Structures are given as structure tokens and as C-alpha cells.
Amino acid sequence: MRGAILYGPRDVRFEERADPKIIRSTDAIIRISVTCVCGSDLWPYRGIQMTTEPTPMGHEYCGVVEEVGSAVTSIKPGQFVIGSFFASDNTCPNCQAGYQSSCQHKELVGGGQAPLLRVPLADGTLVATPGVPPDDLIPSLLALSDVMGTGWFAADAANVKPGKSVAVVGDGAVGLLGVLSAKQMGAGRIIGMSRHESRQKLAREFGATDIVTERGDEGVARIKELTDGIGADAVLECVGTQESMMQAIRSTRPGGSVGYVGVPHGVELKGEELFFTHVRLHGGPAPVRRFLPELIDLVWNGKINPGRVFDLTLPLDQVAEGYRAMDERRAIKTLLRP
Ligand SMILES: [Zn+2]
Ligand SMILES: [Zn+2]
Predict the structure, then answer these.
(1) Which ligand minimizes its atom distance to the CA of 43?
(2) Are residues 182 and 298 in the same domain?
(3) Tally of CA atoms within 13 A in the half-sphere of 269 that contains its CB
(4) CATH code (residue 217)
(5) Which residues surround ligand 2, an ion (CB under 5 A)?
(6) Residue 98 Cα, ligand 2 centroid: separation in angstroms?
(7) pLDDT tens digit string along 206-229?
(8) What tens digit of pLDDT does each residue of 260-275 get?
(9) Are residues 197 and 271 in the same domain?
(10) Do 111 and 184 have their domain in common?
């Protein structure tokens, strides 16, 4: 088969790779229906966190089970399944506590920008849909594999509750789906922070009641203006820079919470400032597996349509253009069809 391989900064190639095989008895092989490029794929693509050897790319996936190992009992060939970027057994204490992305046996899933993918710990990792989905649901089901689950976790970690005020820092796919999650959880005022017209529009469609274009101190001041001068009850940090993290913390009211899901790059927090904010911080790599059953149900029943974040669809062999378009912010998120 052929799949996406990153060779170096801005050098993604679509090349011949060996078909994945069952290695352990707990593995499954799935035939990818659709896959996509993640915002986090752009870090190594831009040469930040670069690996030294050519790396098969892609960790967001859904598709039909082709083959399972001899120890797999709940997942069967022919099922349409979705899994997270971390394979997890879903049985250890961390999984039972709802933190499958800290599973004691977690394994990163990689190489999903290809027609076939090996998923370790298939019973714990994969969740089957109620049946074979109609084509129009597939992009939204794919979004559950990471971005939607991550936006949902940001809202969950920020303790979004009905009627509460929410601010979302970041207008990438995760931030936009953070808005959708807050809306679904019943938030009152939802403030999206964005300077891009097309993203502002989607944020409003997803439930944002206000858009703030200012950043830094001005951005904080705007959010306080919109929240009776005290800051938002819940703030979702969906970027991962020093600026975005401080934006989030300073936009939160005393006693409020920040849910942070942007992978930090060079973020440092000063203990003294943090101490006097009275803000709760919770975040990390999203335990997407925890939310999959509920989110599949919401998509299946037409309650949410997170697939709207895909504004560019390409055949998988044009994966390099998919990265370029996201890198240059011409696309929010690229869907790839094998
Ligand atoms: Zn991702
Ligand atoms: Zn576990």
C-alpha cells in the first residue's frame, strides 16, 4: 500500500509502505474509510519536535475492521469502528477512572494516513457504531477520533455547566469544536476568540454568542467586559503557546476553571501569578475513549455535526497539499479519502 511519510520539515511524501500486519494477538487491522491531518501533525511538519527518521503520519481514523488477533473478543471483522490516537486497554485503574490516554498500557497509534492501519489493544481502543454509517455521517464520526473528543474534553475539564459563561482560546478545529461542546453541554454565553472571518462564522454556527478578535491584555479586557467584569466561568485553551495559556488563565474568574488541551510548546507558568488567580487548571492529552460512546450516539442521532470543521477534502495521494493548506491556514482541517 501507499501512505503518508514525513521526511523532514515540510516534506511529506505519499510512498510505498509495507501493509500493516497483526503483531500481537490483541491487535486489529482496519481498512480506513477516511482520515485527516491533525493540527498537532503540523508541529513536526514545521520542524518543531522533528523525528530523526522518516515517520509514517496520521492518528485520526475510522473504518471497517478487516482482521483481528486471536485474543480480540468484542471487535469483529466487518464492524465500522472509531478509535483514539492512544490505544488503551480500558481496564486498568487509569482507564477505569476515565483517563484512557494515561492507560498503563497505552500505545500511540500512528500511520493512519494510509489505506490500512494496525490498532493495538483493539478491544479496549475501538468502539463500533450501531451499523455501517451512511456516507454523510462519516466525516463527523472521523472527527470523534481526536478533534471532537479533544474539544469535548476541554469543555469537560473546564467544568462547563448549563448556563455558565465560557470563553474559547483558539479557532482551530479543536477550538471550534470546543464551542460546539460547550453549546451541547448547555453553556449560556459562549465567547469565541478568532480573527478569521470563516472561522468566526463557523464558531457562531456551532453556538458562539460573541466573538472577540483582540488578544493579550485587550482580549482579557474584552472577555471581562462580556462577563460582568469578572471573567468567564470556564475557559478552553486549545492552542498550547505561552500567549494562549496566559490568555486563558487571565480570562477566567476566580474559582473558575481552565481546560487546556493545546499541546504546550514552551509554556511556563509563574507560581506566584497562578497562586493569586484562584483558577483551577485541568487538561492534558484528551481521554477520547471515555467520550466515544456518548459522542457516537450524538452524531448517529443527528444532534451534532462536528464534521463541519473539514473544509478541504482531498484524495489521500494529495496528502502533501493537505498539510500545506493547513500550514498556510487556507484550510481549517483536511479530510483525506484513500
Ligand atoms: Zn490529532
Ligand atoms: Zn488502561
Answers:
(1) 1
(2) no
(3) 18
(4) 3.40.50.720
(5) 88-89, 92, 95, 103
(6) 9
(7) 999 999 999 999 999 999 999 999
(8) 999 999 999 999 999 9
(9) yes
(10) no
